[in-house]
Amino acid sequence: MPPRRKLNKFEKGRAVAWFQDGVPKREVARRLHVSVSVIVRLIQRFTATGRIQERRTLGDQRRQLYVKIVSLND
After folding, report:
1. Using the 8-state DSSP alphabet, how is residue 64 labeled?
2. Domain 9-73 architecture
3. pLDDT digit string (tens) for 12-65?
């Protein structure tokens, strides 16, 4: 099984465009060398929110809070 990898913004946009042009999800996944489930989740996210980017995680929020606290102390 190939190692897991994330799609960058360009690849995500390309995947959605191919899907909207009628290319099956399995073929999109094959073209981008990812599993079908990656494409299924991307398409579900896009149809639900209209965005290809993932939501920010709690880790991102903590990181920003830490940067704000550190910068206030300086």
Report:
1. H
2. Orthogonal Bundle (1.10)
3. 999 999 999 999 999 999 999 999 999 999 999 998 888 887 766 555 666 666
Contacts of 25 by beta carbon, 8 Å cutoff, 6+ apart: 19, 36, 39, 40, 43
Residue 6 confidence (pLDDT): 83
> What does the block give as tokens for 35?
């599993």
Q: Which residue reads 């899907």 in tokens? A: 19
- Distances, alpha carbon 44 to alpha carbons 24, 31, 37, 58, in Å: 14, 19, 10, 22
For the chain, the structural domain boundaries read 9-73
